[in-house]
Design a protein that fits this description.
The chain is of the alpha/beta class and about 425 residues long. It has 17 helices and 12 strands. The longest helix has 28 residues. Its EC number is 5.3.1.5.
Length: about 425
């Protein structure tokens, strides 16, 4: 340990018989569908929720008292980094993720903030030289500071657009320097509060131009990672332009980016958009833009994004089923965009939350793999859509309205409804989860 914050907590091991702090399902070296479990799941710890968040909620302030609080000095930013890498070691986490604002305190000028950021990136680089943990992705926080209150790329002030460009360049350079496998853009303020003061067409065009600048810069510096956009419908903005997967894909198509940018899909954001997590993953896979996931859950009795650690095996299993069917992760992974509860004050709570989340994901992955190996869902789909593989089905697709109308009028085509067998298939899934 480089800091006493996690003193007394040993590295977590796989021990299915343990009654203590251990992995009971997550065995990094277990082979699942021909690949190590660690390489399937590609877990990442989120710097912002695990270390930058102070325990506040919409109705109350800080509850955590950490060695790096207050987060206003570079010395404490280094302490935060020490504790973060201690946690990565305890968990055996292969990856982590950050925003610029998570890892260094804001300064009075951009240049000073930039210099502070570079100092911490160099500190990360030193630590990563002797650790297994790598950078899954970096991103820029362009939603917390008051300058972003009307957006970043979509701000009505062109100087804010320019400031956002400088911020993203800084974060992309650092992600590239640290060997990050992706770069994420989450537009928390890229939307509007009211249409009374919003030129939606202009804002969308500006956001499209900004994302093209990002892609151009990626190629200029030789960054081989994936550019990811993260969908979310609202909160903090009343309406965000990256509402859901389908909306993001339409945006990417309009601005010629569908071959350059993929999506980072979050469970909690999917629910806020009125979808299931597996729906958003399956949609992205069908459109060819699936990239990575933020794993968490919402409290279904609350109306906001509560970012809790996952604990629902059936829900997680269906998510990984669609990920595996899409070919699994390439540069993406499972980032825990999740935070402990504001009453969970101890260092052990932070470790236990990740251990539980990793175990749930491992259980879900194994269930998904078992369903794929069994082949029951594939067989049901093949049977349901078999007509399209027949000569008649292929002929129908190749025909036109008039010809098809004539065939129906003649009585040659007279469809008879068939059961969708939903309850049977739900019972089938329950055998595995």
């Amino acid at each position: 340990m480089t800091h006493p914050f996690f003193a007394g907590i040993e590295p977590v091991r796989y021990d299915p018989e343990s009654t203590g702090l251990a992995y009971r399902h997550y065995n990094p070296d277990e082979i699942v569908l021909g690949k190590r479990m660690e390489d399937h799941l590609r877990f990442a710890v989120a710097y912002w929720h695990s270390f930058a968040w102070e325990g506040g909620d919409p109705f109350g302030g800080q509850t955590f008292e950490r060695p790096w609080h207050p987060q206003d000095a570079m010395a404490r930013a280094r302490v935060k980094a020490d504790c973060a890498f201690d946690l990565f070691d305890i968990l055996g986490a292969p990856f982590f993720c950050w925003h610029d604002a998570d890892i260094r305190p804001e300064a009075a000028t951009f240049r000073e903030s930039h210099d502070r950021f570079q100092e911490i990136i160099a500190y990360f680089e030193e630590k990563m030289a002797t650790r297994k943990t790598r950078l899954l992705w970096g991103t820029a926080n362009m939603f917390s500071h008051r300058r972003w209150m009307a957006g970043a790329a979509t701000n009505p002030d062109p100087e804010v657009f320019a400031y956002a460009a400088a911020t993203v360049k800084m974060c992309m350079d650092a992600t590239h320097r640290l060997g990050g496998e992706n770069y994420v853009l989450w537009g928390g303020r890229e939307g509007y509060e009211t249409l009374l003061n919003t030129d939606m067409g202009a804002e969308l065009d500006h956001m499209g131009r900004f994302l093209n600048m990002v892609v151009d810069y990626k190629h200029k510096i030789g960054f081989k990672g994936t550019i990811l956009v993260e969908p979310k419908p609202q909160e903090p903005s009343k309406h965000q332009y990256d509402y859901d997967v389908a909306t993001c894909f339409g945006f990417l198509q309009k601005y010629g980016l569908e071959k350059e940018v993929k999506l980072n899909i979050e469970q909690g954001h999917a629910i806020l958009a009125g979808h299931s997590f597996e729906h958003e993953i399956a949609t992205a896979a069908a459109l060819g833009v699936f990239g990575s996931i933020d794993m968490n859950r919402n409290d279904y009795q609350s109306g906001w994004d509560t970012d809790q650690f996952p604990n629902n095996t059936p829900e997680v299993a269906l998510a990984y089923y669609h990920i595996l069917k899409a070919g699994g992760f390439t540069s993406g992974g499972t980032n825990f965009d999740a935070k402990i509860r504001r009453q969970s004050l101890d260092a052990e709570d932070l470790v236990a939350a990740h251990v539980g989340g990793m175990d749930i994901c491992a259980r879900g992955l194994k269930a998904a793999a078992a369903m794929i190996e069994d082949g029951g869902l594939d067989a049901a789909l093949a049977e349901r859509y078999a007509g399209w593989a027949s000569e008649k089905g292929r002929g129908i697709l190749a025909s036109d309205l008039a010809a098809l109308s004539a065939r129906v009028m003649s009585g040659e085509i007279d469809p008879q409804p068939r059961s969708g067998r939903q309850e049977i298939l739900e019972n089938y899934v329950n055998r595995f989860v």
